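Hi Prof. W.,

I finally got the PAS domain S-box-containing protein prediction working! I wasn't sure whether to trim anything, so I left the full sequence exactly as given:
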Amino acid sequence: MTSGLIPGEQPPDPRPAGGLPHQRHEPAGHGAVPVENRSRSSVITARAAASFEPVGRSVASARSFVRDTLQGWGFADIIDDAVVLTSELVTNAVVHAGTWADLLCLRCDEGVRIEVTDRYPEREVPLQGPASGMGSPDREGGRGLQLCAALAGRWGVEYTSAHKTVWFQLDVPDRPVGARSAGPALPSELLPIADARVRVAVVQIDRIGAISSWNEDAEELFGYTADQVTGKPLTDLAAWPHTPGTGTGIAEALQLSRWEGSYGIRDTGGRVVPVYASHLRVRDTDGDPSTVCLLVRDHERAVLQTPLRGLSADSAGSSESQSTDPFEVFIGSPAPDDLDGLLQRTVERARDMLDGDSAFLLLATDDETELEVRASTGLPSARQRFARVPVEAGSGRYGSARMPAVHDDLSSLPGAVPLLNGTGMRSVVTVPLKVEGRLTGSLGVAAEGAGRYSNEEALRLQFAADRIALAVESARLGELERLRRGSLSFLVEASDLLAGTLDRDQTLALMAQMTVPTLATWCAVYTIADQASEPYLSYVLHEDEELIDGIKSLLSKIPPPDPVPAPGARVWSAPGEVAHRAALRSSMRSLGLSSGTSSQVASGIGPTLTTASAVGGETVVLPLVARNRVIGMLTLGKPTDEHFRQEILELAEDLSRRAALALDNARLYSERTAISQSLQRSLLPPELPVIDGVEVEVIYRAAGEGNEVGGDFYDLFPISDGAYGFAIGDVCGTGPNAAAVTGLARHALRLLAREGLSGPAVLERLNSAILDEGARSRFLTLLYGELRPREDGSADLKVVCAGHPLPLRLRQDGTVEPAADPQPLLGVLEDLELYEQTVTLDPGDVLLCVTDGVTERREGPRMLGDDGLADVLTTCTGLTAGAVAARIMRAVERFASDAPSDDMAILAMRVPELHQE
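And this is what came out:
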């Protein structure tokens, strides 16, 4: 892939570097008409270009390129749509059209335009409309254009004689810039409470997200000096409550012109300090952008919080008129797509309106059987975000969240409001949020005193809830749509990554890395070898690498979850219970209790308090089911008191199905590879025997990735009375079918030779055995001989060359000559008349035997050939057998740059020179 990023004004030359087709012509001769003509008047402020070769991995590279480009431009709102569309269009180019894909991203005043160009204009894109089949998502082609039509503001198709371009434009949502508002004058008792000394941390973040300025109040609030944090990314300190696929992350927030909201900052002690922040994007005189962040303690947010819009001029001067329509200020305050901000402000206003100590808001899941905690204030359960409770709950005056309810004293009705268990709240009023008669959520306000609320407060809260219900539901649906688009992009990339490897360990690592931290804080993968085996802890990952060993130690002391094949996530309470006991033991030790007492509480399990906190939240288990068998479990966890949201669990379930199949494929591949290698090794001869008076060296190379044995083979074995048999052969073809004939030939040669048969008799019987194989028989060229060393230092050979490349004899004077005559190959004729020839190797002589993979080595029209082999052999005078074989193989490899396409075998035998005493 080649790419270039060129920010700046509208370029003088509209054609980008690298040959990207920026100039366009009207379509002609292809029948495709753009949906909308390209706008020529937009001012281009930045561009990014890249080219991708026609291979499958280019699709993932293109997605990453678009994501990084738009992230750098600060357009996080449209990244998911752009990635999905780019993935489809680049796939069409590099996979279906089989050409290079040129990708161009343009930032202009109207939004972002992305062009994908391939070099196969003859392959037309389907037209829009019923006749083209674009209405069917199941058809093989045209789905990329369907997505363009569904997601893009504008799109089109353009042709030239050499290129075809599909483009789409995404509009960037408007963001409020420089908004101002004012609140009414209020009596002193209605003013928000703040500490006597309000500290406002002023932190400046440079263009790459690093801290460049840190004032004294920031040092007082968080404990770090300016020298300790300057130059570090703010993300190292920020505890961002970000759900993947929705809302805004810290990096995006720092790129916005203005942002306001809550998050946390980790202090020097590791504690998270809740803060309320106001971000303003500025630039210095040199034009370099930076972000100024004002931070206060979260309970002092009134110092920075922008007053909410919606107050009329009449209400601005009267607190009485303000209470008449208490929830008018809820609607329109946060950005339309900022559901978290809307919910948080809702609970704060509800608490203030009823003078409560806490408030909470729950949203219904899609099936409306459960409610999820989405926002709260004044409760320790703020950490229990996304905890779920059933809609039909409690035994109080109203047992359903579908009806308003007032509880005077929760101590007499334990469990009536599960969210408030153990919080100290005694009285509570809850009302439903409904849209068109459908339950969408529940809003509640609670107080520490009993009997604080009556039906009058319930009516006021219900009136306010009715005002906010539609805005909440609209924002929730928008968030859900963004989450689904993000999920689609996430699953596309996950599938590509999992499909890219067949290694079991790498698959396990990818599973964990895709879930942490995107879906969970930590994860563990259990695998099951077979149905009779227990689950085994195979991989553990935490977003903080220092906690991995502790979590692994803790989980190793807990019985693994049961391998239940039922789909969906189920809660696994064991890690949380162990974490709770560990926290209790730590507390007892800090109080000075005996170690014996604490060990009884801990039941012998002792993870550190940090580890216990890391796994103390909700833990869920998803089965890994492949081919109707549970092959493992994917365990996802959250820190103390945190819960998963339902949409994340559904995304994790989709991922687990893909991961299970990838893991099972890796297992099958490993097993079959092991079997294949074992069978192939059985076809190779054992270690070569040591022959007194003769040096022997063999080099063997099988063609094809993962093959150890092919159609070429060799053997050297003792016969009797100091005689040795040797053979080198070539079965027609390569791969497993040829290897089967290889095994037959090698084992038959040994059996027949040890029966005392002559060389011709051995080959004639082998020929009959090959023909008996019928349709599975293969042609076979074979050089077979018997070697017998003599006392005078020479060696006698009897050889039969049945259709094989002739053996070459190298004499001490450097001459090279064939050592046998050619005879018919095996596996063709039933009646063969073969004869053997006798050769004597004098001291210093070399006999070289090769297969045709050596002599037929090609580079374009050139071939090494018999003459080329003989020329190389003439340079081997005086070399040992090992050196001769190595020089021949080196010459073959250097003859051509491509990988060998045929099997190769080299057998070199040399009689050493006699040494004078």
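The chain has a mean pLDDT of 78. Does that look reasonable to you?

Thanks,
D.
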